[in-house]
Design brief:
It holds the Pfam family RNaseH_pPIWI_RE. It comes from Streptomyces zagrosensis. This is pPIWI-RE RNaseH domain-containing protein. The protein is of the alpha+beta class. It is 27% helix and 17% strand. A hairpin with a 2-residue loop joins strand 1 and strand 2. The mean pLDDT is 75. It starts with a strand and ends in a 12-residue tail after the last helix. It has one domain. It has four helices and three strands; from the N terminus they run ββααβαα.
Length: 119
């Protein structure tokens, strides 16, 4: 079972950091998916197919410019900040300040969704 660990992944010239954690199903006690995949369930446990299966959670960080910081420090800070969910038990996709800013922006009456628009 992965713990909350920040892994460094080197891919050629690019370096990314993977922050792993346990899924909500595993944290809540649903352990079937920790030992089996849907295709490997023993015959007596086929009723578990309807339950949510555990899957490792991960967030990937890529540091574009480090400035005066070390890359590992920045990745660690980003991982710590993204673990601080604003109002619920779980992990946010963005660090908390960016998550809150995006949420406020999307709730603004003048918000225009620009994803998918051509430039």
């Amino acid at each position: 079972m992965p713990e909350k660990i920040l892994y460094r992944y080197d891919y050629g010239d690019a370096v990314s950091w993977l922050f792993s954690g346990q899924s909500r199903q595993h944290a809540g006690g649903q352990r079937t998916g920790t030992q089996y995949a849907g295709r490997t369930l023993p015959g007596g446990q086929l009723a578990q197919m309807g339950a949510l299966f555990h899957a490792m959670t991960r967030t990937e960080y890529v540091i574009a410019r480090c400035g005066s910081w070390r890359e590992g420090q920045l990745a660690g800070l980003a991982a710590r900040v993204s673990e601080q969910a604003a109002m619920w038990d779980g992990r946010t996709n963005l660090p908390a300040p960016l998550h809150l800013a995006k949420s406020a922006d999307e709730k603004h009456p003048g918000f225009v969704d620009q994803e998918g628009l051509s430039e």
